[in-house]
Amino acid sequence: MFYRFETAIRQQDDSVTLPYWDSVLDNQNITDPRHTVIFTDQFLGNGDGIVNSGPFKHWRDINNCPLQRQVSRINHTELPSPGIINMIENDIKVRYVKDVIDHFGKAEQKLTIEGQHNLPHEWIGGTMDILNSSARDPAFILHHAFIDYVWEKFRQKQKRLGENPEFYPPLGKTYETDKYNLTAFHTANRTMDCFPWMENKDGYRSNYVGILYEYEESPKCPNCGKSKYLTCSHELKKMHWYCSDRFCRWRFTHMGLTHNHPRYCRRGWCRVSLCL
Ligand SMILES: [Cu+2]
């Protein structure tokens, strides 16, 4: 679906590539993830209330509702965990689809790729936190593109371990799957909604990635993907080098609106709101 979306945009501008937001990087590297540069004027606009800054300011959806967010306003919400995402991508004990999808009613939901996927929806809040409206926030695209990236990493691991990533497992039968008729919705041979020429199992084909598209590696030290926005940084307490963004942040209020203004530090990185 995202490939189709990217193709549609490229009909207008063939230089466009869908970006992803590695929310783990923000969770890992920023003392307070609410200060991520993603929710500033430079990128997706403000994260507190109705979006009134950045490229999507004053957006309204097809129901004339304004785009809105409540970043980290709901108690106990957090961004995806570096440890769990690393487990999904690299732990050889986590090798079957059943190990990473959410079986309703199980206590370890948060350990699954689906459970981790839920977190930024709740953390961003507002439009993103409602099933029927979430895709109307451009953050949805950046978030889901990242989840697709993690899923592909899992599939690459399966290949390395000799598993077949095209195997579509039966969902099994639980009280919840019965209650919501999920087994019927998710059977391998069910026709996909809106794509009548495809069945669910076709979504597991391996020939999309590599032939139609591929994923850029998430930035890592020492060169941080050669991004002009990132620099390799080090904090004693974390005992390792990591890619940190080059922005200094401060907030101000003007005409009743809170603005989150980053200053881009072209060289070096930010220390106590100063570019050093
Ligand atoms: Cu989602």
Automatic annotation (TrEMBL):
Keywords: Metal-binding. Residues 137-148 form the Tyrosinase copper-binding domain. PROSITE patterns: TYROSINASE_2 (PS00498). It holds the Pfam family Tyrosinase. The keyword Hydrolase does not apply. GO terms for molecular function: metal ion binding; oxidoreductase activity. This is Tyrosinase copper-binding domain-containing protein.
